[in-house]
Amino acid sequence: MKPPATPIDTLSNDAANLYKHLHPVLILSLYAYQFSSIVADPVPALTTTLIPLAVLQIAYAAICLPPIGSSNGVGGGEKKKPGERRKAAPGKLEVSFNSKIVPAFLSLISSTLPGIPVLALSLLLFGAPVTTHHAETLLAAAHISFLATLPLVYVHGVDGGRWREIVAAQVHIDEVFGCTLGTLVGAWLGAVPIPLDWDREWQKWPITIVTGAYIGFTVGKVLGGTILKGKTVSFE
Amino acid sequence: MARFQTLSLVLANLLIPAAILVFATGFFPYKPFMPGLAVYEKLGWEEKMGWTKEPEPQFDRVVFMVVDALRSDFVFSSESGMSFVQGLIRSGAAIPFTAHATSPTITMPRVKAITTGSIPSFLDVILNFAESDTSSTLAAQDTWLAQLKAKQGGKLVMYGDDTWLKLFPGFFERADGTSSFFVSDFTEVDNNVTRHVPDELLNSDWNAMIMHYLGLDHIGHKTGPKGPNMIPKQIEMDGIVRDIYEAIENEDHLANTLFVMCGDHGMNEGGNHGGSAPGETSPALVFMSPKIKKITEFLVRESPIEQTSDFEYYKKIEQSDIAPTLAGLMGFPVPRNNLGVFIPEFLHFWDEGTDRARLLLHNAQQMKKIIEANFPAYSFADEVQEMDCEGSLSSGKELACKWQKAVQVMSTMATIHPQLRVQYLYDFCRTAQEIMSSTASNYDVPRLVFGTALAFLSVVLSVLAIRPDIRNPSFSGLFYTLTLILYTVLMFASSYVEEEHQFWYWLTSAYFFALFLSSVQKQWLPWPILHPAVMLLVVFRIARRWNQTGQKYAGAPDIVHSGVLEWGNNIVLWSLVGAAYMDNTIRLSRHVARSIANYWNADAEDGESERFMGTMAVLPSGVTAFIFKLAFTARDAPELVRWPNPDMMHWLESVDLVLFARMVFGGLGLSAAWLIYAEWRKSRSPKHVKGSGALALSLFDTLTLILLTQTRTSSLPLYLLFRLTTFFLTHLSTYSPSTSLSPTTITTTTLLLTHTSFFLLGNTNSISSIDLSNSYNGVAGYNISLVGLLLFVSNWAGPIYWSLAGLILLGAHGSRAHNIDVSEMDARDWIAEERAHLVRLADAEKEKGERRTGWGAWRRHVALLTLGQAAAAVAVMGACTVLRTHLFIWTVFSPKFLYAMAWGTGFHLGVTVGVGGGFWWVGGW
């Protein structure tokens, strides 16, 4: 059994400190920039927005977050057995490839493959249209998955026990898990304006949900990295 | 301490009905009406205008044909089947209007508006359902019927909807009422009217013939405005119009007959009415007579007209304008409580300007009396006065100024065109109509505030009653509080009142998900996808889809309308319905079997023979209930019963529904009486261990069968989903003692599911969705309290189910006892962990047993629910007070208040406190 996850600190180099603050601004700017075309025609606009979203999230993970297995990441710092032979030191480029790029793509793949279907099914359970708007629901799930789970996989990997804790919301809140909680709660709150009789285009499915997810992501990231850091979610 | 809490809880509960009552008297003030018949009075200006006698009446008879729910486009649009009427419009022998009907758009208030010219108070909605109530008759009021009857030789005849007979008892010389009992009846109700028409057209003794056709409304309710029977019905109505019109043309004694055809209200796209959608408030109105050609020369006579979405065809007038117009045309005084205005087009019947002015002055003088009574502070004298009419004016002042202007124009010595006088009188009348029908004028604001304050006091008292629990708020407690706060906010948003179900669905899904998280935090089960809380979400998602409800997405696809249930001659529907009945009957038979076994020996398990006896005792009730449902559906919604065998179908149609319903209720009453007696006897035996809770469970299953009887057939499968929900909730609570649901969690679940299930069964916060079809089950005559009770049970079936299911979850009534004797275990037991588990299990069971037999848990449960109910009352009353001048006050907020009344009194006091208290008591036996 893995040790319980401790809150994750973002990397402390200059690039990480800069990009950490820049990232939510970029994410929100991306969404704000695409908003009018998403309202006009959700399916193509949400699809094209996915690519820059993935790029930004991977960049955030690669620049600011400790990848799975790294010394300051979770599950890292395994003690070497005494007498164990040191492996040959890998080259610098190789280090950066192995330790960053691989987890980054791993997280992209796993937030796409189990991530999107699971979130789409959750959306259905929470009331998404069953017989219509399938593309919209899938795209909403994709956006939520990239926002909520991509950095999470980067730092936690795909370990089953760790994911049990994540699903049960038992890991300590940090910047990354704050993003996850914020995105999910934001998407849930995003349903609120739908029934209002304002007759606005943006009230249609799934725009408010996705908007809620983006705003929730930002709020969750800020709160998770500051005042909520180290706390846990309790249902007692 | 406990005594203080109980006291504040009792007070909080007493305050809820008090608050509702005080608020209602301020919100729906009893409108005093002026009694007695109007007579022609001195108008003033007689000499000046040279008036010697009343203007010559144009007609001496009226045929008044009401076609229920005749929306404007059913007559006027290019898709209408009424070609004869359209031909009359083109020829000028008919004047068409769209007659605006105010909300509530249901028959009785509309008939009141048409006949008295007044705008009926919202109280009439309640009285519409309590039709026998004598205070709602119009016998003592001034109507055009009373005026026509009072005329020399005045005789009235009436055929059709018996609402008229109830409203006008003893008015009619000859009458044949039909009641709209089964909305699946498209033909009989109308043939029953039409068969009298030829004879009556030959009679010359009457001066008013009223007909009220119900078939078109039934078609609307059943199949919507675009149903396949709609056009044929319109053609049928058109044929009747032709017969009557041709008789008027050809028969000498009918030569001066005015023929009016109108709808009392319209219908929305779902075919229902009661609310204020454009379709519901826009019925058609056509005046027909060969004599009308005199005045239609310069009017628009184009017909048919392209379909429009706002349903406004030709000129839009108010429905109340019919009464003064008939008064002018037929020569009788305008009814005293009238707020209608003579329709200007008809003034052209009189060539003299002085006659026109005189007609209108009658109308204005009559309205002025009402205005004077409502605005006593202002002067409405018939003489020229100085009056400051600059700037923005209050309603009363504005009316006084308009009247003064009319007085000045009437009194001026200058020679002016008579039309000018008419115009000023119209200006006064229209403003008076507008102001008197607008809403702000007649609230008793101090009472509104006082009522809301009382409800708020109830909130404070119920908070006091749960004070010890507040210090350590649990997640569920916080969720509960958040729910109430959000609910209060949302009640101020008209769209969320209309879409309240979305709020509850949204919260319930989230809460089930929170239950999932809470459970997996304590213990991880393999296969999280099959976790009971996830299954709750799945079941709930299916239930949500069952009945589409609310306004915004009304008519959107749902399971009931998807056609899935109708597959293979409705086999899917009836299998599910049958399963629901069977499930309940089997459960009930087990209870009876156990009670028989326990009759002689309190410890006995029920054996083969007891099971057989139990089944034999319960089966007749279950089977009768199912046959009743089949036979009722065969008549109420025949499209849902397609029996391959015509003899069987025939037999179903011949079943005596009243008798069968009584047999169902009687049989269930008998088994309940037996179960209570047996349990009572058992509880007095010395060996009896208190609090098995078995009786609560048996009574719950008995009651569920009654709820099934009172629920719409297409919604019955939902009870299977309810049963699954109960199963998964129980499973969630019991599969491990560590994950057992806390009492607060169960209370929160109860709050959510009572509200959610109300909407799942297809209800909304609009009057139009009230389901009347099951409120006469087993009632032969008219018994207001019985019908009221059945009406409540059939509309609140879901909440009643969940209120009691929540109690059973709370007390874990009838759960299988594990008989773990902790004292027999010792430390040498081979697995310490297993031992600890059993101890926990035993503790949990002991705790629940104690919970059942005491009143503490019930009091906390009810205190929280009282808090919820009081907070909801504050929210609704607060919204109605603050938004009393809101555009939607009569269409959205007032119906919500009516529902809040039923929730607060019928549901909370009657079910949660009353029936629930009884359940808890017998559960502790």
UniProtKB/TrEMBL annotation, chain A:
<dbReference type="GO" id="GO:0006506">
    <property type="term" value="P:GPI anchor biosynthetic process"/>
</dbReference>
<keyword id="KW-0812">Transmembrane</keyword>
<comment type="pathway">
    <text>Glycolipid biosynthesis; glycosylphosphatidylinositol-anchor biosynthesis.</text>
</comment>
<keyword id="KW-1133">Transmembrane helix</keyword>
<dbReference type="GO" id="GO:0005789">
    <property type="term" value="C:endoplasmic reticulum membrane"/>
</dbReference>
<dbReference type="InterPro" id="IPR009580">
    <property type="entry name" value="GPI_biosynthesis_protein_Pig-F"/>
</dbReference>
<protein>
    <submittedName>
        <fullName>GPI-anchor biosynthesis protein-like protein</fullName>
    </submittedName>
</protein>
<feature type="transmembrane region" description="Helical">
    <location>
        <begin position="138"/>
        <end position="155"/>
    </location>
</feature>
<keyword id="KW-0337">GPI-anchor biosynthesis</keyword>
<feature type="transmembrane region" description="Helical">
    <location>
        <begin position="176"/>
        <end position="195"/>
    </location>
</feature>
<feature type="transmembrane region" description="Helical">
    <location>
        <begin position="101"/>
        <end position="126"/>
    </location>
</feature>
<feature type="transmembrane region" description="Helical">
    <location>
        <begin position="207"/>
        <end position="228"/>
    </location>
</feature>
<keyword id="KW-0472">Membrane</keyword>
<dbReference type="Pfam" id="PF06699">
    <property type="entry name" value="PIG-F"/>
</dbReference>
<keyword id="KW-0256">Endoplasmic reticulum</keyword>
Automatic annotation (TrEMBL), chain B:
<dbReference type="Pfam" id="PF19316">
    <property type="entry name" value="PIGO_PIGG"/>
</dbReference>
<feature type="transmembrane region" description="Helical">
    <location>
        <begin position="689"/>
        <end position="708"/>
    </location>
</feature>
<feature type="transmembrane region" description="Helical">
    <location>
        <begin position="744"/>
        <end position="762"/>
    </location>
</feature>
<feature type="transmembrane region" description="Helical">
    <location>
        <begin position="478"/>
        <end position="497"/>
    </location>
</feature>
<dbReference type="GO" id="GO:0006506">
    <property type="term" value="P:GPI anchor biosynthetic process"/>
</dbReference>
<feature type="domain" description="GPI ethanolamine phosphate transferase 2 C-terminal">
    <location>
        <begin position="440"/>
        <end position="924"/>
    </location>
</feature>
<feature type="transmembrane region" description="Helical">
    <location>
        <begin position="897"/>
        <end position="922"/>
    </location>
</feature>
<dbReference type="InterPro" id="IPR039527">
    <property type="entry name" value="PIGG/GPI7"/>
</dbReference>
<keyword id="KW-0472">Membrane</keyword>
<feature type="transmembrane region" description="Helical">
    <location>
        <begin position="714"/>
        <end position="732"/>
    </location>
</feature>
<feature type="transmembrane region" description="Helical">
    <location>
        <begin position="657"/>
        <end position="677"/>
    </location>
</feature>
<feature type="transmembrane region" description="Helical">
    <location>
        <begin position="527"/>
        <end position="544"/>
    </location>
</feature>
<comment type="similarity">
    <text>Belongs to the PIGG/PIGN/PIGO family. PIGG subfamily.</text>
</comment>
<dbReference type="InterPro" id="IPR045687">
    <property type="entry name" value="PIGG/GPI7_C"/>
</dbReference>
<feature type="transmembrane region" description="Helical">
    <location>
        <begin position="782"/>
        <end position="810"/>
    </location>
</feature>
<feature type="transmembrane region" description="Helical">
    <location>
        <begin position="448"/>
        <end position="466"/>
    </location>
</feature>
<dbReference type="GO" id="GO:0051267">
    <property type="term" value="F:CP2 mannose-ethanolamine phosphotransferase activity"/>
</dbReference>
<keyword id="KW-1133">Transmembrane helix</keyword>
<dbReference type="InterPro" id="IPR037674">
    <property type="entry name" value="PIG-G_N"/>
</dbReference>
<keyword id="KW-0325">Glycoprotein</keyword>
<dbReference type="InterPro" id="IPR017850">
    <property type="entry name" value="Alkaline_phosphatase_core_sf"/>
</dbReference>
<keyword id="KW-0256">Endoplasmic reticulum</keyword>
